[in-house]
Amino acid sequence: MQKPNHLWLWALALVLLSRLITMVTFPLVDTTEPRYAEVARLMVVTGDWVTPWFEPGVPFWGKPPLSFWLQAGAIKAFGLSEFSARLPSWLATLLIVGLIWRYGRAVGGAQVGRWAALIFSTMGLTYISAGAVMTDSVLTLGTTLSLVSFGQVAAGRPIGWRWLFFIGLAIGLLAKGPLAVVLTGVPVGLWALWTGRWHTALRGLPWVRGTLITLALSLPWYVAAELKTPGFLDYFIVGEHFRRFIDPGWAGDLYGSAHVQPKGMIWAFWTWASFPWGVLALAALVWGLCRRPVRLTLGLFLRDDSVRLMLAAALAPLLFFTLAGNTLWTYALPSLPFSALLIAQGLAQVPLQRPMAHRALAAVTVSVPVLVTAATLTFLAQDNRLKTEREFVNTYEHMAMADDSGLLYLNKRPFSAQFYSQGDAEEVSLDKVLHMLRNGTHARYFFAVPHDDKASVLKQLPASTRILRENRRYVLLTFTQSGYDQGV
Known about the structure:
By secondary structure, the chain is α/β, with parallel strands linked by helices. It contains 22 helices and 7 strands.
């Protein structure tokens, strides 16, 4: 019996470590990753742990600070790098894996716990988000902790879970905001309605003292943020949680643009996020519903209170975002831990003695890690296809001398340039560059120009202009005063 345990543990470790390795080598790609990483970098530089800053002088009201606190802490501990910025997401994923492994083992035995951990770890969105700079991983940690804790309390397990439910709420509130309360409260309410166990839902938890703990952990930051930058609560609570939800073309976004999607798109996002397991589970479910013995087994399966909670927790994010006009595929992440638990419960009912079944499951398990790792290596070999300015910044830092200009970007400075240059990359107009040339401000200039503007810009630059590098979006030019026509 020890051999399977060891094989399972080794497989899980290899999956998680493979993501840890690839996230060290892959550059931050615009726009989301470097934008959030830059917010964390500015937190370290300014020493301001209350207000996340979008750029110097512009507060970032779009998200609470917990993810940025963790990223900034990692940057302080390990230095500025892709690894530091991404490490909190990997650790959050690791904790979620531990939670669903423990809950799966409690409700279905060791086999269910193992499969739940492996299935969740090898779902498409889980594997990608584990090595990405994002806030959804920490939100999912909070909602998973709360719902697993509620499940343990409902089953009469150790009393400590009663308090962890409220710790999870605080994590969610500081990671993403009131959405965490919705994604936790809806499954609990659906479960109580379905099972009729309102007594457990209402009295199983210390609601008064627990709520005070949640508020004590989360409310001080909300108050401090509003006092420090008035207008935060209106933008974040009203704008991000109501206007964004009901208005597909919400024009109030200060930091990007609305992600307009057809209503109900979250269900398609779930199939991509849960790949390959979600598609296989849906296919197996459709096949099973056509067979009476399987239907009977499914009926018995759904009578289990823990299964009902897992189903409610898996469906709640999808039901909630069905009516939303602005959605991203990352919004499906809080559904995945409980989707994995349900799939593991179903898989545990299937006899898997044949070697062919073992080989098929092994292939499914490694499919996402292999595909993502292969894609990472392919893109690294052709880094000019990525939306990142890492190599431009590296080239500039290797060549620049004291009298040279900074790294200049025509009209718009990408977030990755801002992060990798540690805020030194400059956003300039062509008129400003020509003004610097006329005044002989620098010995040499380093100027990144979008491909679409390359021809028109080159006509106005000195004859000494040459191309240093090109990437997917920009061409990096360098030039001196030599050959510049002052009359241009």
